[in-house]
TrEMBL record, chains A, B:
Heme keyword on record: no
Annotated organism of origin: Peptoniphilus equinus
Superkingdom, natural source: Bacteria
Documented EC number(s): 3.1.-.-
Family matches, as InterPro entries: CRISPR_associated_Cas2, Virulence_VapD/CRISPR_Cas2
Protein name from the UniProt record: CRISPR-associated endoribonuclease Cas2
Membrane spanning stretches: none
Amino acid sequence: MMVLISYDVATGDKDGQRRLRCIAKECQNHAQRVQNSVFEANLDYGTFLKMKSRLLAIMDKEKDSLRFYYLGNNWKHRVEHIGAKPGMDMEGPLIF
Amino acid sequence: MMVLISYDVATGDKDGQRRLRCIAKECQNHAQRVQNSVFEANLDYGTFLKMKSRLLAIMDKEKDSLRFYYLGNNWKHRVEHIGAKPGMDMEGPLIF
């Protein structure tokens, strides 16, 4: 199954910065980064549930958010990418 | 039709910061912000195409990226949100 995962992490303090690193690392272990905070995970259901459980354990539900989009089987027809591909320095500081 | 829009904008210079503001504003005009750089647009096809055209005119295809996920009619079953809702101060500086 293909799942799109996007996250916002409140990085105003050191604990938030730690959560951001941990969530990004967990996603990188199981999914492909397509943008800074957007990953695509093509996993069997059991593996996805384990990953999701770990993400929920890391996040602070009062401050952070996670979104999962279950793209189904025909997901390739649902996605359009325009512009630059994700760079290598995704963990560096970016100011939005 | 429901379309998920996510973007990365290279904000290392003033022009990038301008593009980010313009893209965010264009998205806010037609879509609901669900995370910092993630919007959901429930639009008729013609309106979506006009919006997409404006976004493409703003972005720098060498530096920025836009992704569109066409979620189809049963999109409500495809989305799961966990944690904090988007705050009001989405245009303020956030350090990732």
